[in-house]
Amino acid sequence: ELYAQPVAEGSPFLVTDLPTAELVKTAANAFLSTKISFINAMAEICETAGGDVVRLAEALGYDDRIGHRFLRAGIGFGGGCLPKDIRAFMARAGELGAAEALSFLREIDSINMRRRAAMVELTRETLGGTLLGTRVAVLGAAFKPDSDDVRDSPALNIAGQLHLQGAQVTVYDPKAMDNAKAVFPTLRYASSAREAASGADAVLHLTEWREFRELDPAELGEVVTSPRILDGRNTLDPAKWRKAGWTYRALGRPTA
Questions:
Q1: For the chain, what percent of residues have pLDDT higher than 70?
Q2: From CA 170, how far away is CA 157, in angstroms rounded?
Q3: Residue 151 contacts by C-beta under 8 Å, 6 or more apart in sequence?
Q4: DSSP letter at 25?
Q5: Residue 117, H or E segment
Q6: Which of 95, 116, 148, 178 has the fewest CB within 10 Å, making it most exposed?
Q7: What is the pLDDT of residues 99-114, one digit of tens each?
Q8: What beta strand segments (E) does the chain contain?
Q9: Using CA atoms, how far apart are residues 17 and 57, in angstroms rounded to an integer?
Q10: Any idea which residues carry the catalytic annotation?
């Protein structure tokens, strides 16, 4: 009765043994994590080789065996499922005596966490080598758009690291402000992107909300101290921001 309607509408209905059924969600999240970390590893290569990870991902996505989904490089995944599931999966595999089968997930987790550190370093580099005394606006607190969920949020983690290293950080998110304040009460919070960016030496785009993609760079440029935008999600239009006089930087992409 519970699944009658979706099955009638064409959703696949599979019957398996219990061990297989229990593996489905964790295996799916492990695969998605692997795909995301793969393109982020390619971003690391692009940063050293001078390539553009966005164009690379576009080319790879045209291969039907790969596809475009989950091939957007950036600051990595967070939330209450992917990080937890891959770590629990590794632990359970060890209990079952099959630890080697999932040892690659340790590197997937490591790549993911390195992208957060890379964003902090990109911010430091953009600001002349130090974060002390700088003012940084962070656009985004939720781990993904259209959600107020801040569990293991890369955006908040980066904001916290910047704060601990001497930057004055102001955060704005369309939905996740209350949850963010509960987790990081020492950060500053604003009621709009414009307010967050007021007086900022750099603006970091860390959660890919539609509201942020539709920002007017010229209008936002009126309130910042220095027009520098760091796109942690590779979803903004570089040409649009540069045309408005901004310095645009992103992980895995050329500086110009």
A1: 100
A2: 13
A3: 78, 79, 80, 143
A4: H
A5: helix 104-126
A6: 95
A7: 999 999 999 999 999 9
A8: 135-139, 168-172, 188-189, 202-205, 228-231, 247-250
A9: 37
A10: 81
